Structure formats: C-alpha cells, structure tokens
Amino acid sequence: MGDGTSTAGCHLGGPPDGAYGPAGHSGGPAMARKSPIVRTLKALRKRVAAFRAAGERVALVPTMGALHEGHLSIVGLARRHADRVVVSVFVNPTQFAAHEDFDKYPRDEAGDASMLASVDTDLVYAPERAEIYAAGFSTRIAVEGGVAEGLESVTRPHFFGGVATVVGKLLIQCGPDTALFGEKDYQQLQVIRRLVRDLDLPVAIIGAPTLREPDGLAMSSRNAYLSAAERRVAPVLHRALLGVAEKISGGGRIGLALAAGRRQIETAGFQLDYLELRDAATLAPLGNQIERPARLLVAALLGRTRLIDNVPVMPG
User: Is the pTM of this model over 0.85?
Assistant: First the structure.
C-alpha cells in the first residue's frame, strides 16, 4: 500500500499474541495505555469476534508502519465510524519492485507502538510474512484497466497487483465493517474501492484527507529520506498543484495550466513522473474543460525520494 496510510514482509518483532507493546519497550509517560498486539490470523479473528459479540462495529486502518501524525489522523477518523479500531502493520513485499526500497523502507517498532497507544488503538495486527503469504502462496488479485490504468502503473506496473492482493487478504482476515485509506495515495484508494465493489466484499471504504506539514508538504513515511536541502524544496510540489488547480477552476485552459505546473516542478529540481488531471471518480483523462469533480495528481523524484500528491479540482 502507499506510504501515507499504508504494507510488505516487515514485522514488529516482539511479544506473542495478546502481549502489550513491542518487546523490551515499556512505553513512556505519554502512553495512556499499551495497545494489544496480535500476530496470527487465529488471534486476530478471536479478538474481532469478541468485539462483534459485544455488538461493536470494527474499523481497519492498514499501514506499513513508520507512522506519523497523518496515520494517527486516520485512526481518529476511524474512531468516528466504529467502536473498535484495528491497525495493521505490515510492509508488503509484493508491491515493491526489485529496484525499489523494500529493505530501506523506514521501520520503527517502538515508535509505532507508542504512537498507536497514544490514540488508544484497540488492536494492532502485526503479522509475520508467512501469515499473509504462506508457503506455496500463488494467488494474485489484479484490478485491470479503469482506475488502475496509467499514472502510478506506468512506472510501477507491479504496484497495484501487490496492493490489491494484500488489501484483499487483510480485509478477509479482519472482516471489518469499514476500512480507511489516505487520500494522498488517491489512485490506490480508487483501486481499493473498485476491488471491494467487484468482489462484493461487505466493507465500506472511507478516504481520509491528507494531513500536511505547515509548509504544505504531504506527510509521508518517505519524507524521512529527504536531505535538509531537499526538504526545503519539497513543498514546491504542493504549491504547484494549488496553482494549477486554481487556474483550471478559474476557467483557464487545462493544457496550458498543466504545462506551467510541469515547468515549475522541473525548474525546482524535481524529475517529474506525471502531472495529470483526471476524473475524480473514474480517473479517466479529461479534455479541455471540466464539468464534474476532478483530481490533479503528481508524482516526482526529488533526489532519490519519490513523492506523490494530489488535490481536488472543482468545475468553475
């Protein structure tokens, strides 16, 4: 899954099912309590069954760990939609290509446990890789075409197959009433919505607004990769999005607005993957004017760090 709300074979090494907090970590004064951690499907379903027996609604927030305030805002939103919140922590290997950053993806077991406890997370599901992909695992879920076409799929053709498979597994394993995903990974959110509709999964998918730093940079686990100089440049990405969105909403020509935005991003030192305007629901490319809600999406490399972002664009 995407890094902003997002899972591959990392695990929180530590206590057995039902224990509290990661191994060797007793928490600190900021921890109101320690959230229970389960690591097996059997233990997860036992806990969720107990919630259900009490008549409680369950929300799932899938993550890849390396948590930040953006993740906690999603947990807070989940609390408004359910009585119990389960957060999964699993860095999903099938969504990383061989040349990508799986081994270097940031991991902070103690920090994650402390942050989740600070927002009273009811249960943390931190499975081992074999609990998701057992020996001989040979099934893959693929959302083909439509919302999965273009954008991220151009440079990362493996990505959504990995995401769809692990999200499908997590939804089936947990069986929540609702699951929440960050809007920062907007195409991923739409792929997951398509997956749930196509497979008739009985879960409501909710998109959570992107939480930003004071300078506008979207919060992301990958921001930790940025050097100090790159971090100063990074907010240009969001400023460019806002500028393009304003021009288009004001009636400006879409092609000219996109071209200006691309120049601004590249001049700042980014290597641009894409800056595109798409239909907000279908992600179909748009022509020279918008008549319904649209989404402006961008992906670009800054140094060795790939950043993504998006903003809504409404008809003028």
Answer: yes
